[in-house]
Write a structure and sequence with these properties.
- The complex is a heterodimer of chains A (215) and B (235).
- By secondary structure, chain A is of the alpha/beta class.
- Chain A contains four helices and 13 strands.
- A ten-stranded mixed beta sheet of chain A has the order 4-3-2-1-5-8-10-11-12-13, with helices on both faces. In chain A, strands 7-6-9 form a three-stranded mixed beta sheet, with no helix packed on it.
- In chain A, a hairpin with a 4-residue loop joins β6 and β7.
- In chain A, α2 runs parallel beside α3.
- By secondary structure, chain B is α/β, with parallel strands linked by helices.
- Chain B has a domain of 150 residues: Glutaconate Coenzyme A-transferase (3-Layer(aba) Sandwich), CATH 3.40.1080.
- Chain B is globular.
- Classes of the chains: A alpha/beta (215), B alpha/beta (235).
- The interface between A and B is large, with 50 and 56 residues.
Chain lengths: 215, 235
């Protein structure tokens, strides 16, 4: 058994505290907003220049001047603010965002992250990913444990072009959770999805990690 | 001082030349100078270096300057969802310099602020830092990035007064205010022009000193790239 996309998002949501400023990447990370714990309100930042992202609009309220970083139409909240791209990345690079949840192509045991390009395939660009991992206080990666072709994504050393070096704090996958208390420490396997065994994880990754299962 | 010009064509008269560098505002398809880009296309000016976060989309925005093969180099952070761009890059017709989005924004801000270089943690240990000086500050490594300036910045705002003071609307602001500061000449298109002295001085996003020419937008397509809605709850 493995966790669904929503269950993965819900697991990542447990890491968010009331009042956190949070940037969610495109894809599964976006789902985290739907699974906040009771009593937890966070302020979502969108790097194109919006702090306080509201829900998707009703059809008649769609506004082409109001989009998120994934270019989806969104709404503003009474508490929202708008600002320039330079101000937006002052928030990000300047260490004012508490948590970012991002996808990954590979993460390695030293916390290096590769998530922006696969050489030989189309070059789309890194967008804000490199700024986020460089500046946000805590980086949570949300990804399947293995690529669609079965290859390990949690590896001893990233072979894909890096987004940042030693930047990942936690990895929430469809099968388990790895975390570390600081960026000098080794990752620890702390949780398994129902029915998943420790040896199954060991066979699915090439990274070195400690085991510290909590349940 | 009245900075208002009669048309997009009039506002770009005499400022376009081959090999020039143009900054173009916008994020995705939001806040693009939709009325000014077709004038650059129709002028036929060639071998442009274009600085813009994205490269437009099929039939819209900067895409039309790629289509007419007027762009020699793009400096951008994200160029996905654009088949024409992909093709021209792979054919070697178009040079691409990818910048992290925040580094791109700060390079433009630095250009407008008269700061030739700065250090950032973004991109350290990645291809972005290759060939650039890296220095350690308080125990952490930072890479040196340089300013960006343009011969012409084309900007989309919501509202201007006749003196060139600007207000933007929602997330259509994005790179526009930063690019407005970094152009030798800055030309702005807006949805509404009001008389000087009628805008609240406390609510001006770009002071008129950064703006040379203003026109009322003639194209307001504002295409939506990714329409996302929620259903009305049943009553």
């Amino acid at each position: 058994m493995s966790w669904s996309r929503d269950e993965m998002a819900a697991r990542a949501a447990i890491e968010l505290s009331n009042g956190d400023y949070v940037n969610l990447g495109i894809g599964i990370p976006t789902l985290v907003a739907n699974h906040l714990q009771a009593g937890v309100e966070v302020i979502l930042q969108s790097e194109n220049g919006l702090l306080g992202i509201g829900p998707f609009p009703y059809e008649e309220d769609v506004d082409p001047d109001l989009i998120n970083a994934g270019k989806q139409t969104v709404t503003e909240l009474p508490s929202s603010s708008f600002f320039s791209s330079a101000d937006s990345f002052s928030m990000i690079r300047g260490g004012h965002i508490d948590v970012a949840v991002l996808g990954a192509i590979q993460v390695d045991e030293k916390g290096d992250l590769a998530n922006w390009t696969i050489p030989g395939k189309m070059l789309k660009g890194m967008g804000g990913a490199m700024d986020l991992v460089a500046g946000v206080k805590r980086i949570i990666v949300l990804t399947d444990l293995n690529a669609k072709n079965g290859e390990a994504k949690f590896v001893s050393e990233c072979s894909m072009p890096l987004t940042g070096k030693n930047v990942v704090d936690m990895i929430v996958t469809d099968k388990c959770v790895f975390t570390r208390p600081d960026r000098q420490s080794k990752f620890r396997l702390i949780e398994l999805a129902p029915g998943v065994t420790e040896s199954e994880i060991a066979d699915s990754v090439t990274a070195d990690y400690d085991v510290a299962l909590t349940a | 001082m009245n900075k208002v010009f009669a048309s997009p064509e009039a506002a770009l008269e005499g400022v376009l030349f081959d090999g020039m560098t143009i900054m173009s505002g916008g994020f995705g398809l939001s806040g693009n100078p939709e009325s000014l880009i077709p004038v650059i296309r129709d002028n036929g000016v060639k071998n442009l270096t274009v600085i813009s976060n994205n490269a437009g989309a099929d039939g819209f925005g900067l895409w039309m300057l790629l289509k007419s093969r007027q762009v020699g180099k793009m400096i951008s952070s994200y160029v996905g969802e654009n088949k024409l761009f992909e093709q021209q890059c792979m054919d070697g017709e178009l040079e691409l310099e990818l910048n992290p989005q925040g580094t791109l924004a700060e390079r433009i801000r630095a250009g407008g602020a008269g700061i030739p270089a700065f250090y950032t943690k973004t991109g350290v240990g990645t291809v972005v830092a290759e060939g650039k000086p890296v220095e350690t500050f308080e125990g952490e490594e930072y890479v040196r990035e340089t300013w960006l300036r343009s011969d012409l910045s084309i900007v989309r705002a919501w509202r201007a007064d006749t003196a060139g003071n600007l207000q933007y609307r929602k997330t259509a602001r994005n790179f526009n205010p930063n690019m407005a500061t970094a152009g030798k000449i800055t030309v702005v298109e807006v949805e509404e022009i009001v008389p000087e002295g009628t805008m609240d001085p406390d609510n001006i996003h770009t002071p008129g000193i950064f703006v040379d020419r203003v026109i009322k937008a003639t194209i307001n397509e504002k295409r939506i790239e990714n329409l996302t809605t929620r259903p009305r709850e049943a009553v």
